[in-house]
Amino acid sequence: MNMTILLFFLAGLAEIGGGYLIWLWLREGKPVYFGVFGGISLILYGIIATLQTFPSFGRVYAAYGGVFIIMSVLWGWAIDKKTPDFYDLLGAFICIIGVLVMLWGPRGS
Q: CA-to-CA distance for 97 and 51, rounded, in angstroms?
């Protein structure tokens, strides 16, 4: 389970960080190398996500979507200095419950 969490965290950093660098390049006029490093980071995200051991692509990516939402709220808070409101936090909490149910809910054979 620890490796699962680590891989989700690393994938989230690569995806959000890559997207953020491209945002800075295209929307805020940063140098082109921001976009290049952002693209490399997004490629790494795609690779990292495939390292999960769950057998179902759809389940892993759906669960990762919930992790992505939570990490995006935290990124906005830490990097963009946008404090999440009650509904941001409630939505993130609902997402983490969904992730836990999808990945570790009891399933029959």
A: 23
Task: Give the chain's mean pLDDT.
Answer: 92
For 69, the token pair is: 């939402």
Residue written as tokens 């669960």? 63
Structure tokens at 63: 């669960």
3 state DSSP class of 82: coil
Separation of alpha carbons 97 and 25, rounded Å: 35
**Residue 32 is which amino acid?**
V
Query: Which of 7-16, 19-28, 46-55, 79-88 has the weakest average pLDDT?
Result: 46-55
Predicted TM-score (pTM) of this structure: 0.84
| Region label for 30, one of left (φ > 0), alpha (ψ between -120 and 50) or beta (otherwise) | beta
- Judged against a pLDDT cut of 70, whether residue 1 lies above it is answered with no
Q: Which residue has the tokens 């490796």?
A: 3
Chain length of the chain:
109
